Amino acid sequence: DVSGHGMAAALITVIVKMAFRSWVEAEWSLSDFVRRVNRDLCQFTPDSSFVVLVAAIYDHANERLDFVNCGHAPEPFHLPSDLSQPVVGLTQTGSMLLGLEDYIEVHETALSLAPGDAIFLATDGLTEAMNDQSELYGDDRLVEFLTTHRSKPVADLVTSLVEDVSRFVGSAAQSDDRTVLAFRVRGRHGQEDVTRHQTSPASPASGDSV
Question: Domain PPM-type phosphatase spans what residues (predicted)?
Answer without folding.
Answer: 1-185
